[in-house]
Amino acid sequence: MSTQTLPAQTTATTAQEPRGAVSDLEFVRRSKPVSVITDSLVLARRHLMRIPRQLDWLVGVTVMPVMFLLLFRYIFGDTVQATLPAGVDAVNYLVAGIIVQGLVFGSMNTGLGLAMDAKEGLMDRFASLPMTRSAVVLGRILADMGIAIFTTAITILVGLLVGFRPTANVAEWFGAIGLMLLMAFTLAWVGAIIGLWLKTVEAVNSIGFTLIFPLTFLSSTFINPDFLPSWLQGFAKNQPFTLLLDATRGLLNGHPNIGNKGWMVTLYLLLAMVVLVPVALWMYERRSKE
Predict the structure, then answer these.
(1) Predicted local confidence at residue 188, as pLDDT
(2) Longest Cα pair distance anywhere in the chain, in angstroms?
(3) Percentages helix, strand, coil for the chain, rounded to the nearest 5?
């Protein structure tokens, strides 16, 4: 009996040792929302830390809205002024429009970044790590939001140097900034969908901007829509970007009258995210399995 009992005791003892070792290495369990946030912030930090090695790219995305601002301020400024009501300054009108346009164009950085990650095989590496899948997309978006805040601040500073004189008080500034950040966050999910839908970086760059350009130019970004051809006015006056531009200008400059446009834009953007976020995450799951 002793020869049968001793091995059993030895087996039990050796079986307990691995359990003790595993308990020492056991991972901290986190709730799903906490995991998404922490993993996203880690990836966002990773993307931002690469920027010092890509200063030429950062200069490019920063210079583009400044170039548009200077171009329309000094070449087309008088033409824009002629289309505006009396008392409305063309510089104030243009700066608000170019800020919003810069945020719209910046949304494509998310698509380009995700397409580049897929091309370099980073998505496959991320899929093998113990992290939430949605953090890959959200981390990229948070990093691009940080870049958008930087480029927008530079655009506003240049605007102030060339005559931008907003009349907004502190509360209106906070309202305008909040509206623009919500818009940038929403449009970044559009960029993510485009980047996950198309197969190459070149396709994202060309097709993505082809889709965005008409929406920004056929609006009130640079000119009063009343001076567009009659068959375009209906679309230009009622499309989402014009509504957003009018709300931003109303907060910063007092023209046009904002009315309930700010709340309408906020509601539209939130409803858009209800659709865009699940679609983008579904497309990421599909792309990571290809």
Answers:
(1) 93
(2) 107
(3) 80, 0, 20
Sign of CA dihedral 100, 102, 105, 106: negative
**What gap in Å lies between CA 150 and CA 157, rounded to an integer?**
11
Please provide the distance, in angstroms rounded to a whole number, between the alpha carbons at the two ends of the chain: 59
Question: Is 141 in contact with 109 (CB distance < 8 Å)?
Answer: no
b/e per residue, 98-113, with b = 16+ CB within 10 A?
bbbbbbbbbbbbbbbb
The Cα 108–Cα 85 span in angstroms is: 34
Cα separation, 108 vs 161, in Å, equals 28
The rounded distance, in Å, linking the Cα atoms of 49 and 106 is: 18
DSSP code, position 260: T
Angle between helices 261-288 and 134-161 (to 10 degrees): 140
Q: For residues 284 and 195, give the distance between their C-alpha atoms in angstroms, rounded to a whole number.
A: 10
How confident is the model over 171-198, as pLDDT tens digits? 999 999 999 999 999 999 999 999 999 8
Vertex 199 angle, CA 195 and 205, to 5°: 55
Is the Cα dihedral 253, 256, 260, 265 positive or negative? Answer: negative
Q: Please give the angle made by the CA atoms of 237, 178 and 150, to the nearest 5 degrees.
A: 100
Instruction: Note the Cα 249 to chain centre separation in Å.
Output: 21
Tokens of 235: 């679309």
Task: Extract the residue ranges of the chain whose pLDDT is less than 70.
Answer: 1-31, 290
DSSP string, 67-93: HHHHHHHHTSHHHHHHTSPTT--HHHH
pTM, two decimal places: 0.81
pLDDT confidence of residue 256 = 76
- Cβ-Cβ contacts under 8 Å for 201 (sequence gap 6 or more): 112, 115, 116, 119
DSSP state of 53: G
